[in-house]
Fold this protein.
Amino acid sequence: SSELTQDPAVSVALGQTVTITCQGDNLRSYYPSWYQQKPGQAPLLVIYGKNNRPSGIPDRFSGSTSGNTASLTITGAQAEDEADYYCNSRDSSGNHLIFGGGTKLNVL
Amino acid sequence: QLVQSGSEVKKPGESLKISCKGSGYNFDNDWIGWVRQKPGKGLEWMGIVYPGDSNVRYSPSFEGQVTISADKSISTAYLQWSSLKASDTAMYYCARHRALYDMLTGYDWLDPWGQGTLVTVSS
């Protein structure tokens, strides 16, 4: 399969830890990247590769991969982390990128 | 950074070309990708262009529907339609695409992103 599957919505209490997952067979071959998108804004890269954070992204964001599942973990979620999160990786052909359907994170 | 052209309102059947201008890095040496987001929906990868030699790769979903190009002399990438449909109504983003691969595995990332261009197609 060349699809990336994400849960549509996840909730977390303020200050707690939350994991957003992304499943796809191609994740056995390619590391994903993760993007945060807040309403009315362009997506923002938060994690790429094995577990790389761009400059300016808080260290409460981390990534990992096991088998066909990639995970984005936010340790100590803040109100400003409420957003849509998308995973992205190559498809099975290796020539194109694909996005997961996105996960809406609610911070309670 | 990447700066995109402004919002557009077009009628079905009209043509359109939107742009994405890069600055602050060597525009020739990295791919530029285009991503569609329909209202209230997720991100869709459309394709990429390498400004250095204008090599283009399209998502199978968008091949034949749009044309992606670049002019390295002015550090600008383009996305164009020859005949718009109402279903093309969406926000379109460009982003710098980089990749790091070895013999075993690797990864891609899109950063930075342009601010987006809203295209509205309505009769």
Chain A has a mean pLDDT of 95. Chain A touches chain B through 28 residues (CB under 8 Å). The first strand of chain A starts at residue 5 and ends at 6. Chain A has no helices and eleven strands.
